[in-house]
Amino acid sequence: MIRKTIKVSNITCAQCAKSIESYFNDLPDVTAQVLVTSKKVIFNYDEMKYDQDKLGDHLRIIGYYPIFNNEDQLKAKKRDTIDLIIAGILTFPLLWTMFVHLGIPINVPDFLMNGYVQWAIATPILFYVGRRFFSQTYHQIKGRNLGMDTLVVLGTSAAYIYSIYTTLTYDAHAGHAMPDLYFETTAVIIFMVMLGNFFENRVKEKTSNALQSLISLGAKEARIRRNGTDVMVPVDEVKIGDLMIVLANEKIGLDGTIEKGSSYIDEAMITGEPMPAFKEAGMKVIGSTMNTVNTLEIRVTAVGSDTVLANIIKTVEDTALIKPKAQRIADKIAALFVPVVVLISITVFLLWVFVVDGGHQVSHAFAPAIAVLVISCPCALGLATPTSISVGSGIAFKEGILYKGGEFFEIANKITAIAFDKTGTLTTGEPELSDFIGEKETLKYSASLEKHSNHPIASAITDAYDGLLFEVENFSVLLGKGISGTIEGRTVIVGSPNLIKELGYASPFDPLIFQSQGKTVFYTAIDGIIVNMIAVTDPIKDTAKGVIRELKRRNITPYMITGDQERTARYIASELGIDHVFYEVLPHEKAEKIHLIQQEKNVVAFVGDGINDAPALKMADVGFAVGSGSDIAIDTSDVTLMSMDLGLVIKAIDLSLATLRNIYLNFFWAFAYNVVMIPLAAIGLLNPSLAGIGMGFSSIMVVLNALSLNLFKFKNIPKEA
Fold first, then answer.
1. Taking the domains of the chain in order of start, what are their residue ranges?
2. Given the DSSP bridges, would you call strands 290-291 and 250-251 parallel, antiparallel or unpaired?
3. Is-catalytic flag, 421?
4. Fold of 402-427+541-653
5. What's the pTM value of the predicted model, to 2 decimals?
6. Per-residue pLDDT reduced to its tens digit, 94-123
7. What is the rounded average pLDDT of the residues 527-556?
8. Which residue, 121, 383, 474, 574, could crosslink 486 as a Cys pair with Cβ 3.0–4.6 Å?
């Protein structure tokens, strides 16, 4: 079975997921699993019977639009925008007539009050702009998964059909206004639901496509030695056991074991650590990482779906599938709301025909039955969540917080524990010189030598010296230990304590005080005499301490998860006031640590930035990705922090609580309205026209309440050195 992930432009809710899954699961030799939040479908299929194009054709059959490239993405966006513009233009004149129905003194042209004119305007809105709702309702009914689309179709169709009936029967009395029309209700429902989807899609769009970006990180070709000749071969054609030749500053194509050579490997895109790792013969390397110094001969040990990068992608997808994410509140309720409302409407019709009206004219029973459908139309219910989330997301974006979906608002305020990655999250991820012991002028020798190195620590040392540098001759890299060269005829070495010990040089400086603080120590020796000691550190972010203090004040337990050594991890944790630390954690183990914290009955958030953080970001109940991090970390998170300010974590949580309260208030209004109005409609005290007016008013109330979120004020977290 082949595994393939396809993005779909118009997946909006859990009912969409059920419709897609039930359709494909009924087909032979193919299964589908839907990632609602990222609008992706994961297929497992027999490659002899299906391919990407056939899967795309099946998606289109059930009303969903696959996106295979940027052109498809642009087409889908253009299609949605055109539909929204058409709906907006046509809805405006009908909204104008609604003010008359509300009794508001406003001048409306007489022709707009004509039923045939309103009929002509509402028809393209319902059947052209709203075509997607009908298509998806058909498949929801077929799959027995009634949702918001079904409610939209029932409400708009009932309003439309009854308005036509009223128009035709009222035609004999032409010459004055026709008050029992609510074509505007049909238009408003379609337009407002699409508007909410539009805003939500725009927010998600900014953090989508990153899984595809992760796939693109992998090398496309590898240099393979065959019959004594090195040839470039597509990675798909490389086999386990092939000998791969990787030059300096070249990407390693696939996972393997070094057979010859030694070098520094930049594994930041996998491990998140900024320091290149020293690798030599016998050591394993990961495909898609960067060889920075010397040529390596590597024996390939994994290809295709068995590579580390492929497994990270699979872990991210699978974790998302098993994770108990909250669905939209409106969709949960709709599963019962739709059949109950239809049943009430039918019951009302029968009672009026056989009990109230004593078997007289059926038309007397039609009005209250339709009124029940119209009054329980999903307009306010459908707007309750997306409008609040759209407003909340807009406010957040101005603060540098980017939400990917509404699920975050439902759960973020329940967080009891937050786990932080260390490098690039709690710390800046950029090494800098923190301490220097020795004569100041000797730093010039150190910096002159380091200028010729591409190691990140070299930049930390050269950045600390702003004077003119010496000319260096005979520069050499002592792999895994340091560097050396000749300056003005003198032999200069910058290296680790282990190198100094190996060379037998006597050191007047004690490195333990710096090493106990998790700092990396280097010595500079000139002609065998040590002249200085340099300590380099990855500094803590200036907002980190304030955030940890605020979390503790709120009884939220902070954790730190890092692949760094115990000494460094514990020192950083003690500086920040973090009592719970997981150190020397391998990339694939981070998600396991999150699960371990969850087993202690915690609602867990994780804050990270590296590709190795992606599984943990998905496993956590809420994932925060630092915006400067990798695309895959951003894609797999629930929230992206657009700046390095960790105080945005607190702001995001606070705004989620305010937004959730706003959503609950919207739902209270929507349901209170239905609880009161449905009985009134059923007993004939509310005709369909008033029902349509009421629905328009309820929608306005929901939007106005959502806009009140703009009054929210954020708590500022102080910065500390």
1. 2-68, 103-208+325-388+659-711, 219-252+255-301, 402-427+541-653, 432-537
2. antiparallel
3. yes
4. Rossmann fold (3.40.50)
5. 0.58
6. 877 766 665 667 777 777 777 788 899 999
7. 91
8. 474
